[in-house]
Amino acid sequence: MRKIISVILALMMALTACGIAAAEQEVRKMETAADADEFIAAFLGEHPEELEGVWALSAQMEAALKQIGGIAGMAKQLAALGTPESILPAYEGTISGMKVFYVPCAFSAMKVDLILAVQDGVIAGLQTGKYSGDTAEVKNESDLYDSIGLALPVPSLGELPGILTVPKGEGPFPAVILLQGSGASDKDEAIGELAPFRDIAEGLAELGIAVYRFDKRSYTYGTELMTDTQITLVDEYIEDAVNAVQLIARQDRIDPDRIFVLGHSLGGNAIPAVARELKNAPVKARGFIMMAASPRSLDVLMREQYDFLYSLIPEITDEQQAEKDAMFAELDKLQDLDSLAEDDTVAGVYSTYWKWLADYDILKAAGEITEPVLLLQGEEDYQVTLEDFGIWKDALGEKENWRMISFPGLTHAFTEGLKTEGAAVYSRPDKVDARVIREIADFVTR
To answer: Does domain 15-130 have CATH number 2.60.40?
Structure first.
């Protein structure tokens, strides 16, 4: 699935693709880790454009690259990570049955893995993932909870790997289901050096609340979903959220009458739609938590994020200004959605997705929620800001079932930081602030 530009990291885009085209004889095929090393070294070098025509690319990979200025344009999209400081040797793995090469890269602002997806030697995608270069593992020795592997079935696709973190004891315990922000996110919602959903799961479990988190469809089945022009927020969040509630309600030690759904960022935006769908489900949610959710349209947020990030650059070059102008010109296409064909994309996202969002009146849907709702906002968040929080308060702040809290000194990931740090806040190890976990726990137990 060609994913939404992340509300969490607006300049990091995963460009996955499928539908492999036959490679011409003169281009090279990527078959070994050494090939991946060679490609990434050139990609992060001074002249990534020299890779054009050298390696076999899938048809849809080539189409995606044309929209962003080729391989050099794709390299520029990693600018938010800073300059590359070290590149570790590539190693081979698989994602959804597709061969991939992981290349751990330490940039000046953040550490990530660059992941090359390959099918029959043809490059089908390049995306970022959690950094795997640190070999030391932190072993969980808590005697307060159990971590149980529990996959979420997905009709027609298979299943999504998940973890149910349950407090020790017989229960039954209340449970919270977690929905990540935009993009191909794993169950921990790993962002640079952060893993906010792991922090929330373990923190709530220590306070007597079970938590279920699972990989997103776009993370596990990105290649399979790539050509589906009909994908909307329903496929990305709503169906899986509703099914997760039904799944968790059947688990031992879980109280089926006290299941809550928590969404972060775009996952928080999805909560009102999830609440609507759950009204017709066998098991309903007891309440909802929205973290850093915005009532404004995604394209408005993207423009605002780009403006802010570029404002942090002391002196913008002509090339940087041209890049920004190109992105804004791309977003201008959304002014006439009816002119877009089914397979047209805007900022790498199919038009059907944008049309669904345009029809989604999030404030109206949120106002229909009758269950308790907790809305949380970091005051140092530059991606979803206090302006968004103010809109929520003006529209719904007087409703008895809503509780709204903002936290000074916390970022989009609800870790400590300053908005003027930009994406650099994700480059240092940190944990979700204990105040946030305590407020969620109090809300659930109350």
So the answer is: no
